[in-house]
Design brief:
single chain; 85 residues; 2 domains; 3-stranded antiparallel beta sheet; 1 helix
């Protein structure tokens, strides 16, 4: 794993692991510079569920924006003004 502080790929030690909701949080220490940082690791099922939730939220946000525009008379009927001859 690449150290976010020095960029070294020499390796890191896991100094602490905790099971958070839906993820494993690991504290790591770089072999080169000694700095520490945290990572979150998700299972494939958790990542799939997270992606589905994000896509659903994005779709709902888009639909709400469209409804707002229609309610306020800003509906785009697909026609575009053409400038010039």
């Amino acid at each position: 794993m690449k150290c976010p502080h020095c960029g070294s790929r020499k390796g890191s030690d896991v100094i602490d692991s905790r099971n958070n909701t839906g993820a494993i949080r690991r504290r790591r220490k770089c072999h080169s510079c000694g700095e520490r940082w945290g990572t979150y690791e998700y299972s494939d099922e958790d990542l799939k569920a997270l992606l589905e939730q994000c896509m659903t939220n994005a779709l709902e946000k888009s639909l709400n924006a469209h409804r707002f525009e229609r309610r306020n008379g800003k509906e785009d009927n697909g026609s575009k003004a053409v400038n010039g001859p």
